[in-house]
Amino acid sequence: MASPNSGGITIKAEQDSDGSAQSTADMTAFVQNLLVQMQTRFQAMSENIISKNILIKL
């Protein structure tokens, strides 16, 4: 069963005989990817705020 989340990423539940290990690996990869995306967006927003503050002071 696959279900999309609000970020447009599809989460797929594994139902193999070794489903628990595969599901854990998939969830780990998903969370790591999500954290990278959050860090990238946070960094971009921070740089945008800093550059606007510099322009305002000029």
TrEMBL record:
InterPro entries: HS1-bd (IPR009643)
One Gene Ontology molecular-function label: transcription corepressor activity
Name of protein: Heat shock factor binding protein
GO BP: any one term: cellular heat acclimation
PANTHER family to which the protein is assigned, alphabetical: HEAT SHOCK FACTOR BINDING PROTEIN 1 (PTHR19424)
Transmembrane segments: none
Region (Disordered): 1-23
Pfam family, one: HSBP1
GO-annotated cellular components: cytosol; nucleus
Family statement: Belongs to the HSBP1 family.
